[in-house]
Design a protein that fits this description.
The protein is built from 13 helices and 21 strands. By secondary structure, the protein is α/β, with parallel strands linked by helices. A hairpin with a 7-residue loop joins β14 and β15. It is globular, with a radius of gyration of 22 Å. The structure holds flavin-adenine dinucleotide (FAD). The site of flavin-adenine dinucleotide (FAD) has 42 residues, from α1, β10, α8 and α13.
């Protein structure tokens, strides 16, 4: 058994854990960050093919999913598992929390402090440190430009995204780790700051339980993988425990540790932003991978709970998603340069749940609300119609096993009749499964991230976000982590 001690132990080194750990360390506290995944550098990543990145730094080689309950699709839920967490895999897209979402937090969740003005200094600090900048129109891929042209004919807008990048020249590899170190993920800013201030990272170490004593969190227990692949038990004694293991794994760890019985809210209220993508084939060459992977989005259909956003993954990955077999497939693969792609997500109401599963991973279920389910045909319709307006001659729908369709076929299809089990749905945004609130009956933690059930246990990751956002969440998560960390520093640490 390896034994360590620190003032604060932070579980998870992703977007939230890195931000918070840097604050504690810079304030003079001794900090140990425990991360289940391996330590990979930009140099390691630049040497990996996408398939290797999926195997080495994506959780469960990207095969993790939430099981659809009732009239809901299976949702392939992907997450990072490495030092830097999912932050290493993002498309870099950054949004401040929309004002109308904060209003819901104040009015319905009674989190009265959460106003634009209150969050402004935290937003600005994150934007400065992560170099959040607008993507110039010149970096839009042809795949995005074509969609925008078609959308304009439908009266829709296309707005440039902001991203955490410095010197990006657009190679569309973002989701597999930036090979050039241009994406300013937390392994390039907040983690080095934490280390410079004395924090340590214990990688390849899975925390299996929060240790408690007399109504207080006093550390964590886990198993660390040595260079020979053998696992040793680790115990970390700490005066404060901060959970930053992400929206799927923090609730799992709390449930495994028997925490959250009072509120009964741990693992409930999971939202996912169910996402869909559309591919379109054009007569002209598109070369959709040339340009920023995610450069622009459309807000036109927000009232229908839909945000549409550009995306184009590396060609090897696009090929693996093409429909068909044998010569038909080969013909499509040979013509990959003619394919465009655009995506979108639903601003969902939730209905997901995290439970303990039989193995390492949580059992995740998701029941789509009637309103969210009704948004699915609309999202597919909007995505496809914009490409048809731009001159696409064939569409590849997010429907498993479906053959490509012509413009006429698409326009006469009744998309409401597609069964949920055939929808190809993905998510990268698990939120809300330990949501914050004003009382234990409606939340797992209070408005400053403190667990209702246990002294000195704090949660700061995506699981605390009280509702779905309708936009990509990393900036919200980092902003909340910064705020909660500063609040924690106002609370003296207990005696060891
Ligand atoms: C492919 C992909 C693309 C994305 N693109 C965008 C984007 O463009 N814009 C955006 O805003 N968001 C994006 N996201 C989402 C964004 O990355 C996450 O919302 C954000 O990183 C979540 O931060 P977090 O701190 O909650 O969790 P994470 O960043 O996921 O960090 C959690 C960490 O905890 C570790 N961990 C889990 N359990 C344990 C345990 N028991 N012991 C020790 N360590 C543990 C994990 O290995 C992981 O490293 C994307 C996500 C993915 C996967």
């Amino acid at each position: 058994m390896i034994t360590r001690s620190a003032d604060v132990v932070v579980v998870g080194s992703g977007a939230s854990g890195a931000v918070a750990a840097s604050q504690f360390a810079e304030a003079g506290q001794s900090v140990l960050i425990v991360e289940e995944g391996p330590w990979v550098t930009s140099k390691d990543i630049s040497a990996m093919r996408p398939s290797e990145s999926i195997e080495k730094v994506w959780r469960g080689a990207a095969m993790t999913a939430a099981i659809g309950v009732g009239d809901s699709p299976i949702i392939n839920l992907t997450m990072g598992r490495c030092v830097g967490g999912s932050s290493v895999l993002t498309g870099g897209v950054c949004f401040r929390t929309p004002g109308h979402v904060l209003k819901v937090w104040r009015d319905e969740r009674r989190l009265t402090e959460y106003t634009d003005e209150h969050l402004e200094p935290y937003y600005q600090e994150i934007e400065r440190i992560c170099n959040i900048e607008e993507v110039p129109v010149s970096m839009r891929s042809k795949s995005t430009t074509l969609w925008g042209l078609g959308a304009a004919k439908m009266g829709a807008n296309l707005v440039s995204n902001k991203r955490n990048t410095k010197g990006c020249d657009g190679c569309s590899q973002c989701n597999f780790g930036c090979p050039k170190g241009a994406k300013q993920s937390v392994d390039l800013n907040f983690l080095p700051r934490a280390i410079a201030a004395g924090a340590e990272i214990l990688s390849d170490c899975e925390v299996t339980r929060v240790l408690t004593k007399g109504g207080r969190a006093v550390g964590v227990e886990g198993k660390v993988k040595g260079p020979d692949g053998r696992r040793s038990r680790v115990k970390v004694h700490a005066r404060r425990v901060v959970l930053a293991a992400g929206g799927a794994h923090t609730p799992l760890l709390m449930l495994k540790s028997g925490i959250g019985r009072r509120s009964k809210q741990v693992g409930r209220n999971l939202t996912l932003h169910p996402g869909f993508r559309m591919m379109a084939r054009f007569d002209d060459v598109v070369d959709g991978w040339k340009g920023a992977m995610q450069s622009a989005h459309s807000t036109t259909w927000e009232d229908e709970r839909i945000t549409l956003i550009s995306v184009y993954v590396p060609p090897a990955v696009v090929v693996s998603a093409l429909a068909g077999f044998g010569p038909e497939f080969m013909e499509r693969a040979d013509n990959l340069r003619h394919f465009a792609m655009f995506g979108g997500m639903i601003h969902d109401e939730g209905g997901g749940r995290i439970r303990r599963g039989p193995g390492r991973e949580p059992l995740m279920t998701y029941r789509m609300s009637k309103e969210d389910r009704a948004a699915v045909p609309n999202i597919i319709r909007r995505l496809g119609e914009a490409y048809l307006q731009a001159g696409a001659r064939e569409l590849y729908l997010p429907i498993l096993g479906h053959a490509p369709v012509s413009p006429d076929e698409f326009r006469t299809m009744d998309l409401t009749k597609v069964p949920a089990r055939r929808l190809e749905c993905t998510s990268q945004h698990p939120l809300g499964s330990c949501r914050m609130g004003d009382e234990p009956s409606n939340s797992a933690i209070d408005g400053n991230g403190k667990a209702w059930d246990l002294d000195q246990l704090y949660v700061i990751d995506g699981s605390i976000v009280p509702t779905s956002l309708g936009v990509n969440p990393q900036q919200t998560i980092m902003t909340l982590a910064l705020r909660q960390a500063r609040r924690m520093l106002d609370q003296p640490l207990p005696e060891a």
